[in-house]
């Protein structure tokens, strides 16, 4: 078997960000400065890191970023007001509500309040429905980033059998929709699936989005499978805290043709696609601009 290809998500993300930066400059030259509003409610430490990274990355691409930090006690009506104001602001093109929200706020209602044209996370029902119909809509960043990694690594995906492990609205389901759109045969498995490992062994492509450290090892893989590991799990090992994926990397590299590492695989692509979506949202709102 040929040596395994370690898919470099950082390098792939840098290419996406370079494309975005060039297009942002071109848009600015036409008088539109793409802007992303990021809303963070409460003090969740992981969310603070994610928001900081998103804002930094936006600035690096020349996208204006606006941060709205609100205390954990903020009530839903106040948050909805803020979103309505941002929806109405012609200088704001993308709106991102960092999840999770505090328990007293109805997450679904908040996500549904974001204008579908500014919904850079692709979570609004209008965009979810559009994706499932195969339309060009704002699409969740993580699965969009995974698809790009797969296309870079495999070329045409038509006819390949993809197994997606996980059926969340954020990763598993939109991933399955994107793979279907790319003409794969798609199997989605989850915690109630029977014969999980056998199904996985039939896959040309495995996307693991489970949240279980090292669940998938070489025994789950067909020789030559391409493996995308979405999982980010913090574990204690030898008295040290480290991040591992849903795939047992050291075991899987003996069977896989290509695999993403954790960290340095899917993570950087998620933020890169957020920037791409902000640019796409700005285009949706300025469809009168001539194409670049
Ligand atoms: P969720 O917890 O929302 O979904 C997990 C899915 O995995 C569910 O569908 C669940 O099944 C399924 N599942 C759980 N245990 C098993 C099991 N033992 N066997 C088979 N299926 C199982 O997680 P997310 O989709 O939000 O995230 C998944 C992982 O990806 C997490 O580690 C998360 O941190 C990471 N992530 C990484 C991102 C990145 O940028 N790299 C972005 C987003 C997430 P059921 O539906 O039956 O409960």
TrEMBL record:
<comment type="subunit">
    <text>Homodimer.</text>
</comment>
<dbReference type="InterPro" id="IPR020630">
    <property type="entry name" value="THF_DH/CycHdrlase_cat_dom"/>
</dbReference>
<dbReference type="Pfam" id="PF02882">
    <property type="entry name" value="THF_DHG_CYH_C"/>
</dbReference>
<comment type="similarity">
    <text>Belongs to the tetrahydrofolate dehydrogenase/cyclohydrolase family.</text>
</comment>
<keyword id="KW-0658">Purine biosynthesis</keyword>
<feature type="binding site">
    <location>
        <position position="232"/>
    </location>
    <ligand>
        <name>NADP(+)</name>
    </ligand>
</feature>
<dbReference type="InterPro" id="IPR046346">
    <property type="entry name" value="Aminoacid_DH-like_N_sf"/>
</dbReference>
<dbReference type="Pfam" id="PF00763">
    <property type="entry name" value="THF_DHG_CYH"/>
</dbReference>
<dbReference type="GO" id="GO:0006164">
    <property type="term" value="P:purine nucleotide biosynthetic process"/>
</dbReference>
<keyword id="KW-0560">Oxidoreductase</keyword>
<keyword id="KW-0486">Methionine biosynthesis</keyword>
<dbReference type="GO" id="GO:0035999">
    <property type="term" value="P:tetrahydrofolate interconversion"/>
</dbReference>
<feature type="binding site">
    <location>
        <begin position="166"/>
        <end position="168"/>
    </location>
    <ligand>
        <name>NADP(+)</name>
    </ligand>
</feature>
<dbReference type="GO" id="GO:0004477">
    <property type="term" value="F:methenyltetrahydrofolate cyclohydrolase activity"/>
</dbReference>
<dbReference type="GO" id="GO:0005829">
    <property type="term" value="C:cytosol"/>
</dbReference>
<comment type="function">
    <text>Catalyzes the oxidation of 5,10-methylenetetrahydrofolate to 5,10-methenyltetrahydrofolate and then the hydrolysis of 5,10-methenyltetrahydrofolate to 10-formyltetrahydrofolate.</text>
</comment>
<dbReference type="InterPro" id="IPR036291">
    <property type="entry name" value="NAD(P)-bd_dom_sf"/>
</dbReference>
<dbReference type="GO" id="GO:0009086">
    <property type="term" value="P:methionine biosynthetic process"/>
</dbReference>
<comment type="pathway">
    <text>One-carbon metabolism; tetrahydrofolate interconversion.</text>
</comment>
<protein>
    <recommendedName>
        <fullName>Bifunctional protein FolD</fullName>
        <ecNumber>1.5.1.5</ecNumber>
        <ecNumber>3.5.4.9</ecNumber>
    </recommendedName>
</protein>
<dbReference type="GO" id="GO:0004488">
    <property type="term" value="F:methylenetetrahydrofolate dehydrogenase (NADP+) activity"/>
</dbReference>
<keyword id="KW-0511">Multifunctional enzyme</keyword>
<feature type="domain" description="Tetrahydrofolate dehydrogenase/cyclohydrolase NAD(P)-binding">
    <location>
        <begin position="140"/>
        <end position="285"/>
    </location>
</feature>
<feature type="domain" description="Tetrahydrofolate dehydrogenase/cyclohydrolase catalytic">
    <location>
        <begin position="7"/>
        <end position="121"/>
    </location>
</feature>
<keyword id="KW-0028">Amino-acid biosynthesis</keyword>
<dbReference type="InterPro" id="IPR000672">
    <property type="entry name" value="THF_DH/CycHdrlase"/>
</dbReference>
<keyword id="KW-0554">One-carbon metabolism</keyword>
<keyword id="KW-0521">NADP</keyword>
<dbReference type="GO" id="GO:0000105">
    <property type="term" value="P:L-histidine biosynthetic process"/>
</dbReference>
<dbReference type="InterPro" id="IPR020867">
    <property type="entry name" value="THF_DH/CycHdrlase_CS"/>
</dbReference>
<keyword id="KW-0368">Histidine biosynthesis</keyword>
<keyword id="KW-0378">Hydrolase</keyword>
<dbReference type="InterPro" id="IPR020631">
    <property type="entry name" value="THF_DH/CycHdrlase_NAD-bd_dom"/>
</dbReference>
């Amino acid at each position: 078997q040929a040596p395994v290809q370690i898919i470099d998500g950082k390098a792939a993300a840098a290419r996406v960000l370079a494309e975005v930066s060039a297009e942002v400059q071109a848009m600015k030259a036409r008088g539109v400065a793409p802007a992303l509003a990021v809303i963070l409610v409460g003090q969740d430490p992981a969310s603070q890191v994610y928001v900081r990274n998103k804002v930094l990355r936006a600035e690096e691409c020349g996208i204006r970023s606006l941060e709205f930090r609100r205390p954990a006690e903020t009530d839903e009506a106040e948050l909805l007001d803020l979103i309505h104001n941002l929806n109405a602001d012609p200088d704001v093109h993308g709106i991102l509500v960092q999840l999770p929200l505090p328990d007293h706020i109805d997450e679904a209602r908040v996500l549904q309040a974001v204008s579908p044209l500014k919904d850079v996370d692709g979570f609004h029902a209008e965009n979810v429905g559009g994706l499932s119909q195969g339309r060009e809509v704002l699409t969740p960043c993580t699965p969009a980033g995974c698809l790009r990694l797969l296309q870079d690594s495999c070329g045409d995906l038509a006819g390949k059998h993809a197994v997606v492990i996980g059926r969340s609205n954020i990763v598993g389901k939109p991933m399955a929709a994107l793979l279907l759109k790319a003409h794969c045969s798609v199997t989605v498995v989850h915690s109630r699936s029977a014969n999980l490992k056998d199904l996985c062994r039939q896959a040309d492509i495995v996307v693991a989005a489970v949240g279980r450290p090292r669940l998938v090892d070489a025994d789950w893989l067909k020789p030559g499978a391409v493996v995308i590991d979405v999982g980010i799990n913090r574990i204690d090992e030898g008295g040290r805290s480290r991040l591992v994926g849903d795939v047992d990397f050291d075991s899987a590299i003996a069977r896989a043709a290509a695999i993403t590492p954790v960290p340095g695989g899917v993570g950087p692509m998620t933020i890169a696609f957020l920037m791409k979506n902000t640019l796409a949202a700005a285009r949706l709102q300025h469809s009168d601009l001539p194409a670049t």
